[in-house]
Write a structure and sequence with these properties.
This protein is an alpha/beta fold. It has one domain: Aldolase class I (TIM Barrel), CATH 3.20.20.70. About 35% of the residues lie in helices and about 25% in strands. It is built from eight helices and twelve strands. Strands 1, 2, 3, 4, 5, 8, 9, 10, 11 and 12 form a ten-stranded mixed beta sheet that branches. The protein has a two-stranded antiparallel sheet with strand order 6-7. α7 links the parallel β9 and β10. The protein is globular. The chain starts with a strand and ends with a strand. The structure holds iron/sulfur cluster.
């Protein structure tokens, strides 16, 4: 089996709170978000044998993440000395990882077999594939330990179409949200804040949807709604100030638990 790979971050300490994660970026995405942070991963092909990636996971799990070599300054030396040398989880990200559902399942099984926790970052476009994954088990255990679901705007068009560049995405995301709500897998809703989107009114609509669904699914494992600074790579603009994000969070606090996270990725290595 081959994986259309976008890249690997060998160690991230910001993507999954409390865990150190290896992040696998799978190529391909059905959406065209104007603020896409991984635009180069929306399409294209970089086929890598599955076993090559599994070997990389084994290496990072057993030996630790590659910290680089060569002449370094004091700051870099400190970073390396204090870096956590190995990971305890993998995150399947993208692009949209569920484009490659069979590969996601194979990688999740391999990581689970190595004793790693498995997280999935998804835009929610493929509810039927998400359902398959949420139900999958490895012996007695769930295959997936955590889902990070992106909700980009109020769950209806034209708001969602504006945020994703594609019409009729919102009902699919809503279905994914319902699936996550009804599942025993813990999950987190994430919303990136950009200068002009989503507006505060949309945030309240998202929070209200979460609140209503929490009533419908009282046993849901929804952890929190995380607001984070949107940082597109290939477009020039000033990211929204954290103070503004805090103010936005106050407008929805009380509806749901809101966490503000600075997700500047702690990259130690990124391989294309
Ligand atoms: S869902 Fe994610 S990867 Fe896909 S276009 Fe939107 S921001 Fe980019």
């Amino acid at each position: 089996m081959q994986v259309n790979l976008g890249g690997i971050v060998h160690l991230s300490t910001v993507d999954w709170k409390g865990l150190s994660s290896m992040v696998l970026f799978l190529r391909g995405c059905p959406l065209r978000c104007p603020h896409c942070h991984n635009r180069e991963l929306q399409r294209g092909e970089n086929l890598v044998e599955l076993y090559t990636i599994i070997n990389e996971i084994v290496k990072v799990k057993t030996v630790g993440c590659p910290l680089g070599s060569g002449q370094i300054n004091l700051e870099e030396a400190y970073k390396r000395m204090t870096a956590i040398p190995s990971v305890n989880s993998i995150i399947l990200s993208g692009g949209e990882p569920l484009v490659q559902i069979d590969q996601v399942i194979a990688l999740a099984h391999a990581a689970r077999g190595l004793g790693l926790k498995v997280g999935l970052e998804t835009c929610g476009y493929y509810p039927e594939r998400l359902s398959r994954l949420l139900k999958d088990r490895l012996v007695e255990n769930r295959l997936i330990d955590k889902v990070f679901l992106d909700i980009k705007a109020a769950l209806r068009d034209p708001e969602y179409e504006k945020a994703t560049g594609i019409a009729d995405v919102a009902p699919r995301v809503l279905e994914s949200l319902r699936l996550a709500m009804s599942s025993e897998v813990p999950f987190e809703v994430r919303t990136a804040i950009f200068p002009e989107m989503p507006p505060a009114t949309d945030l309240r609509k998202i929070a209200n949807t979460l609140l209503e669904l929490k009533k419908e699914y009282p046993k849901s494992k929804l952890d929190s709604m995380v607001l984070h600074q949107g940082r597109p790579i290939d477009r020039e603009f000033e990211p929204v100030q954290m103070e503004r994000i805090r103010a936005l969070s106050r407008s929805v606090n009380g509806l749901v638990d809101v966490v503000i996270r600075d997700t500047t990725r702690a990259n130690l290595a990124f391989n294309q």
